Amino acid sequence: MTQVREADQWLCFTERLPPWLRSLAFLAGFLPLLAPYELLIRPGWQAFSPLIVVPVIISLGAVAVGLVFILVGLLGLNQTLCFDTASEIVVHTYETAITPLRERRYGFGEVLGIDIKIHDWESRPATYGLRFTFIDGRTVKVGDFAQKDEAERYLSQIEGWLG
After folding, report:
1. Are residues 82 and 65 in the same domain?
2. What average pLDDT score do residues 25-48 get?
3. Angle, alpha carbons 111-115-117 (nearest 5°)
4. Which of 40, 54, 74, 107 has a CA 20 to 30 Å removed from the CA of 125?
């Protein structure tokens, strides 16, 4: 969920993966790894058999699912994007569980583009975010707004600041 903090001269978007959710995802990634043990190691397959193909396929799928959860726990992004109108800079800070906090600063003139990114979901209504493109080629996406009006309001406010 995106937290938005704003004042007269600045606007910040913050997205964080809560530590409990990060830990839960990481630990949940180890559960599917029981499938290869139960299907391949515990039965003690001695030689190749056509019957082993199905357990191998199931085991590969379980390992893939487990790795996805582990990677979400380790590489889930915490980021903040702040616009400071007093100094006309944009500050993007970001980190994961295994990378240190990093910061990039851009002048307002270094923002090449800003647009609304629509997230179409199958299980829930669409959400709207903002996508920023900077002069160094970096693209930053923030926001998970339920209403398009809210995303458009922030878009027009930032475009007004950028000139």
Report:
1. no
2. 88
3. 130
4. 74
